Structures are given as C-alpha cells and as structure tokens.
Amino acid sequence: VGSEMCIRDSDKGGYIMIPEKIGFIGLGHIGGSVAKTVHRIYPDIQIVAYDTCRATLDTALQEGVISEALDQVGKGFSDCNYIYLCAPVLDNADYVRELSGILHDDMLLTDVGSVKTGIHEQIQKFPDLERHFIGGHPMCGTEHVGYEYSTAYMLENAYYILTPTHTVSPQKVDEFEHFVTSIGAVPLILDYKKHDFSVGSISHLPTVIASTLVNLVKNLDDSDETLRTIAAGGFKDITRVASSDPTMWENICLANRNQILELIDTYVNALKETRNTIAESHPEEIKEFFSSAKEYRDSFNISHRGPIRPVYQLFCDLIDEAGGIATIATILASNNISIKNIGIIHNREFQQGVLQVEFYDSNAYDHAVELLRKYHYTVYEK
C-alpha cells in the first residue's frame, strides 16, 4: 500500500487505493473542480497547490479545499502520491522539467489538458517521469475560466479520458482508473494520438468553425447591425462555443496544430461537396444531406437542438445516487410541469451541469428553474 490509503469499492468489491496527498500545479477552472471534487469525497486527503495567482491560492485555502499553498514547483511536491498538471497546455511542458528527479515509486503524474501529444512527447524525454505518467482529460467545463468558476460536482458522470504511456505499469493504470471512477467520473482509456484526433474532431474543429462563422457574420453586418440584432436561436446555438476563452484556444490551436489543420482541410472539402450538391439543385441529394445529418444528430443522448425552433432547457448538478433523476422528475410532475427530454451529459466540455432537462415552452422552463432552486438544486440557465 505504501503511503496510500485503501477503501472498499462498494460497487465492484475489492479495494480502491486512495492517495494520502495530492498536488496541483495550476488551480483554475478544471484543476479547481478536480480539487474541490476530491476534497468533497475524500476530505482526509491532503491537497497542496501551486498557482501563478496568489489570490487563487488564498481563496482555496480559505475554503479549506487545499491545506497548503506552495510558492514554487519543486520539492514541495515530492511527498505527493498524485500530481496534477493543470496549467495551460503549453505551460505544462515547462513544469515537467521541474518535476524530473523528484518522483518516486508511489507517485503518479497526470494532467487535465485537452491536447495530449505535446505533453506525451515532453514526458518521453524524461524516462524517470514516463513510467509514472497517465495523461488525463476530463470532458467537462464551460467557456469560463478561473478558479471562481470551478465546482465540486463538475466531474459527476463526465467522461474522463486517460492516456497512459507505454511504460507505466498496468497496476498504476488500474489504480488511477478506479480513483477516477470513485470521484464520480467515467474513465475511458485511449492512445494519446487517437485522443487528439477525436477531440480535434468534436471539440477543436467545431470551435474554429463557430468562431469563423461569428467573424464572418460580423464582417457581413451593416452599420445598423441588422445581423446582430436579429441573430437568435439557431445562430446563437451553433456559435455558443465562440464565447470561450481566447487564450485557452490560442494554446489549443498551437498544441494540436497538425490535427486541427488536417481536420479543417477535410471540412473545407466536405463544404465544397455540399456547395456542389446545392448548386446542382438535385432535390433528393439535398434532402439526403440533411436527413443523414439529422439521423446521426438525433442519435445523440440529448435531443436535437434545432436551428429554428427555440429550445427551453436547463442544466443542473446532480449527485450520482439512486433515485436522483426520479426525485427531480417527481418535483416537476407534481407541479404539472411536462418534461420534453431528460438525460445525463457525459461530455460536458463548455457545459455546466450533469443533468439536462428540456421543456415544451418558456412557462414550464421558468417554473422549473424556480422550483429546483427552491429545493436547493444548482441550476444553470442557457
């Protein structure tokens, strides 16, 4: 067991290895949420942290989330069982150098970045770190940045992708996978290159497209701002991620440059094919184009967020316990509120709340928000 604790896994039997001390390098939106989640579930774990913003560390100390604020990256982390790299993706590589030489057999190094190739290539330069490293990417978060937007329930039922190195022991991978499960997330193990292609396709490329579309409309607008004035449901829906932090996306585009460029080229070719289909005015092909997209989109867990009709939906935090969804459904039903759709969101990047509930009209939506907050649920409106 070493310097770790162990507790019984009530769901699968056996025991889960629980670290006694965890260190965080960077305590922003995601790092803060992981720290808060760990503190909520395992209050006896000692958490130490370093961040370039002293005010962030002071807040975390006042809240009791961390027990010690470190003024530099180095020996202060040497007795941690887990170390989380939670700085911007381009900065994490610099911290790797400072950690080389202080890791021991009972230590595991991980990160929370949305791009994995850079950190893995950097880790490969340090054999003493490589055998301890498991890349991590919690698929949750919002367009906001900073510790003040972190929550203790953000990881609940969110996919948490793990990208182990080839030299890390299967035992460490199994241990960390169980730990991720124990803090409420859903682990998924991928090769780091497959990870970057996958998130590039479903996250990075869509954000580039959304931002390009917003800038295009901005440039097409007239002096009366007609386009900005009438922009509604559909446009706002498909461009919401364009409100994400520019610095974060600068980092992502530089870190995942090759994958994003290849995906942009693929998208441009697909867009040309769509243009040709419309230009040739073949009704059946045009209909098939939209039908194919609709069928695939409707197969997602949460129903279609259409470009025409308004969508009345809320997101709320939900503790993963028996009857949690049923309790919310009962509250709403007992107040004659009809639910159009309800579901758990596992991929919640740039989205708050684990549970998404959709309603038929604005009155039902407004009443539901009021009721759930009355019953002390944390509700996020979109």
Tell me what the structure shows:
By secondary structure, this protein is an alpha/beta fold. 45% of the residues lie in helices and 16% in strands. The protein contains 14 helices and 14 strands. It has helices spanning 29-41, 54-63, 89-99, 117-123, 127-130, 170-182, 192-220, 226-230, 233-238, 246-255, 257-279, 283-298, 324-333, 362-374; strands spanning 5-8, 15-18, 21-25, 46-50, 68-69, 82-85, 108-111, 133-138, 159-164, 186-189, 312-316, 339-344, 355-359, 379-381. The strands form three sheets. An eight-stranded mixed sheet has the order 5-4-3-6-7-8-9-10, sandwiched between helices. Strand 6, helix 3 and strand 7 form a beta-alpha-beta unit. Helix 3 (89-99) runs parallel beside helix 4 and helix 7 packs across helix 11 (257-279). The longest helix has 29 residues, at 192-220. The radius of gyration is 23 Å and the shape is globular. Mean pLDDT is 87; it is low at 302-309.
Class by alpha and beta content: alpha/beta
Number of helices: 14
Rounded to the nearest angstrom, the distance between the terminal CA atoms is: 46 Å
**Widest sheet: strand order?**
5-4-3-6-7-8-9-10
Strand content: 15-25%
- Total beta-strand segments: 14
Measured on Cα atoms, how large is the radius of gyration? 23 Å
The biggest sheet, with number of strands, parallel, antiparallel or mixed sense and barrel status, is: 8 strands, mixed
- As residue ranges, the low-confidence spans are 302-309
The helix-strand sequence is EEEHEHEEHEHHEEHEHHHHHHEHEEHE
Average pLDDT for all residues: 87
Which descriptor suits the 3D outline? globular
Helix content: 40-55%
